[in-house]
Amino acid sequence: MRFLHTADWHIGKKLHGYDLLQEQEQAIQQIRQIAATEAVDAIVIAGDLYDRTVPATDAVELFNKWIQQLNLTDGWPLLAISGNHDSPIRLETGSAWFSQSEFYLRTKLAEAFQPIEFPDTQVFLLPYFEPIAARLYFEQEYKTIQAAITDVLAEMKQQFDPAKAHVLVTHFFVSGSSRTDSETTLTIGGLDGISLSALADFDYVALGHLHGKDALKAERVRYSGSPLKYSLSERTQQKGVWIVDVGPDHFDCQFREITPPKDIQLVTASFQELLDPAYYELIQRDAFLAIQLTDRAVIPNMMNRLRAVYPYILQVERQTRQTQTTTLAQPVQQLAPPALFQQFFTKATNETLTATQSDWLARGLAAIKEAEQ
Amino acid sequence: MRFLHTADWHIGKKLHGYDLLQEQEQAIQQIRQIAATEAVDAIVIAGDLYDRTVPATDAVELFNKWIQQLNLTDGWPLLAISGNHDSPIRLETGSAWFSQSEFYLRTKLAEAFQPIEFPDTQVFLLPYFEPIAARLYFEQEYKTIQAAITDVLAEMKQQFDPAKAHVLVTHFFVSGSSRTDSETTLTIGGLDGISLSALADFDYVALGHLHGKDALKAERVRYSGSPLKYSLSERTQQKGVWIVDVGPDHFDCQFREITPPKDIQLVTASFQELLDPAYYELIQRDAFLAIQLTDRAVIPNMMNRLRAVYPYILQVERQTRQTQTTTLAQPVQQLAPPALFQQFFTKATNETLTATQSDWLARGLAAIKEAEQ
Q1: Cβ–Cβ of A97/B97 closer than 8 Å?
Q2: Which of A36, A211, A286, B191 has the maximum number of C-beta atoms within 10 A of its C-beta?
C-alpha cells in the first residue's frame, strides 16, 4: 500500500500569541494536494491533531471541516490516533460512526490490537497512553512506558498476518531522537520514551510527537514532523510529509515538502539597520520574526517602532556574547571587588567601564558595604 | 409515525455542587426502556443535550456512550438539535457521519429546512439560534427572535409534503409558558421567545428549553421537560417523556414517567426534629434535600451535624414569615425609632423584644446617634 504519513497538526496552536489557523488550513490543503498527486491509499495522522485537550471552537470548526473533506468528500481512508496534546475522550466523539467510512480514529489503548486491514498491509493504531492505561488493560504494574510498550507490542504481534507488511502508527519519544522546543516533554516521573529496537518487527513505524522529520535516524521508523514550524527552534526544519510505499516485499519512503504559508526567521541586526528600508526591503518582513538586537543602549518605544515595520515579531532579544571560558588572570579570591567586577565586565562585553560606570560601581559597592554594617 | 419526545438532558449538570452523572445515566436507561416498550420509530431530543458549551470529559464520555448505544447498537433513528446550553460547533463534531445511520443531529439554522422524511411524516429540526444567525442566513435584519422565526417557518413550509404530517423540533421559549429556576433565560436585549400561534401549521411541535412538561397548555405544542429534576422549583414536577403518534390523519400523545433515581424534597422542621430518628426515619433522607429550619437561634456546627444525617443537602434556609401587609397602627413618621423598631420586630416575628434585645437596640441607636454628631 501507499500512504501519506503526517502528524502533529496541533490545530488551534498559537505561536507567541499569533493565531495559526489560517496557516494550518493552508498546510492541510497542501497535504490534501500531495495525497491526490501521489494517489495514496490512505492518510495517516500520528497524533496531536489538536494543540490542547479543550481546543477553542474555531479550532474544532477547522478540524471538523477538514476531516469531513478528506474522508467523506474526497473519500480517503484516514488512520489517526490521539497524541499527548489531545483529550482521548473528547477526540473520540463520533469515532464509532467514522469507521463506517474508513476513518479509523483510535484514542484508547484497548483499540490498538485490532489492525486496519489493507490488501497487503496491516496497520496498527496505537494512541499515546500513560502507564496507568497499560496497568488497567494488562492488570499489572508498569514503571516505565518502555515496559508497557513491550507488552503492547507482544500482544499486537499475535495479530500479525505473515502474508502482509506491518505498519505501526504511534506517538511517543523514541530514544535517540532529537527534540525541539515545541514538543511537550512526555517524561513523567523519570520515565522516558521507547527504544528503537523495540520497534524492529514493523516494516514501518509512523511516528508523531517530535516536530522534525529528521529527529530519528532510522530507515523504517520515522517522525513525519509537524506540517508547520511551531517554534523558533524549528525555523530551519524542512516541513512536509512522508509518502510511504510498503508491502510484504517492498519498501520506499519519499519526502514531500509543505511550503510554509508564513515562515519563521531569525534576524540579527542593530535597531538602526532594522528600521532602514535598504535593510528590510531585502528580507521577508511579513514572516514570523525573532530579532536579535546587537544594540546595548536603551531604545525608547522599541517594540512599537519595530512592529510598524515587522508585523509578526515573535520576540526581540539582546544579543548576548558567548560566556568566556578563558581563566581569569588572577584567582578570584585575590581580587578586590572593583577590580573583580571590572575584569568580569571586560570578559563579558569586550569593553571597559566608562568613568560614569566606574562611579556607579564605586557608589554601589559603598552602599552594599554600608548596608552590611 | 410514533416517536419518543425528550429534551433538556443537560448532561454534566451539577445540582448545588452534586454530580448528577449517575442519575442522568439512569434516566437515559429509563428512556431507552420506554422507547423499547413503546416500539417507537425514532427518539427526538429537543436540545440542551449538554449543560455547558464545554462539558467536562466525564459528561462527554457519558454522552458518547449513550448516543452510540441508542443509535448504533439499538438501531433507533435519533433526531436531535442543539439548545441554548450547547455549543453548536462542538456538538456538531461527527454529525456528517451520524446521519449515515439515521442519527440526525442539527446545530445550524441552515440545516433546518430539509426535513427528515418518514413514510407518513416530515420532521423539521430547528436548533436554537440567535437573531444574528437569521440575519446571516436571510441577509436581513431581525430585532426579535419572533420575527426571525416567522421567516424560518415560512421557508420550512415550502418543503411541506401535503400528503404527510409535519413535526417541528425546536428549542425556544414559547409565549405563555411557565418557567422554573433552572432554565437559563433566553431573552437577549429585550427579545423574548416565539408565539404559540406561529406554530399552528405543524401537527406537533416537540419543544425543549423549559423543564416542566406542563409549561405550555397546548395540545399539539409541548415541552417534554427534562428527564430529571434540575432545581428545587422543579421538585413537584412529574418527569418523563411524551410518546407521540402522528400522521396525516391521526394524533395521540401519551406521557410516560421517568422515576427519579434520587428525588428532590423540601422539608420544614426544627433542628431538633431533624436530628431525631423518629422524624428522619419516616422521610427519604438520601434524597436531595432543601431544608427550611424553623429555628431562630444560632446553631453551632449546624451544617456538619445535619450532613451526618442527610448526605445530600442542597440548601438550608431559615424559615422567614410572610411579610405582613397590614398597615402599622400609627404612621411611621410619628413613631420614635425604638417604638418603630419594636413594632417592625413584632410584625415580622410575632414576638416582642426581650429585655436583652431591648438593651441591644437602645445601645445600637445611641451609637448611631453619637456617630452622626
Answers
A1: yes
A2: A211
